[in-house]
Amino acid sequence: MSDQDLYAALRAAAELHDPMPTDLVDRMVAAVAVADLSREYALLTLMEGIESPVRGDAETTTMQFSDGSATVLLHVSRTESGRRRIDGWIDADASEVRLSQGERTWTAQPAEHGRFAFEDVPPGLCRVQAVTAGDAKDLLTPQFEV
């Protein structure tokens, strides 16, 4: 019996005696979707004591994102031109921080103490990615509106 025949016989025996549940694919898709929502919810924490959301008429807001190993703090302020300035700090060793909005991406290298900034950002949905050094996993925030 060839290896290919042996594998086919094993596959047939497994399918006969221990078939895959019919709803397994649907359950797995639902589990992955829920896990991703829970992760995004856990990442986004609006700082307490902030009186103004970014969408409102207020001039500034502060947001904090964390994945348990790295934290990014963002301070968003409206400029006179109606665009946004985003000042940020990261507490992990990051080689680069990227701000993405649609097809456009801004890049900043964190300075001493993890400080970085993005200027002249138009209002809209954004996402921040902190590229960390070594084996650490990059931090990718959920989308937020500036």
Q: Between the first and last Cα atoms, what is the distance in angstroms? A: 65 Å
- Poorly predicted runs: 45-56
Mean pLDDT: 83
Question: Could you name the CATH class of the largest domain?
Answer: Mainly Beta
Q: Report the principal-axis shape.
A: elongated
- Would you identify the CATH architecture of the largest domain? Sandwich
Rounded to the nearest angstrom, the radius of gyration is 23 Å
CATH overall fold name of the largest domain: Immunoglobulin-like
Topology pattern, helix = H, strand = E: HHEEEEEEEEEE
Count of distinct strands: 10
Strand content: 35-45%
The spatial strand order of the largest sheet comes to 1-2-3-4-7
Number of helices: 2
What is the helix content? 10-25%
- Given the helix and strand composition, which structural class is it? alpha+beta
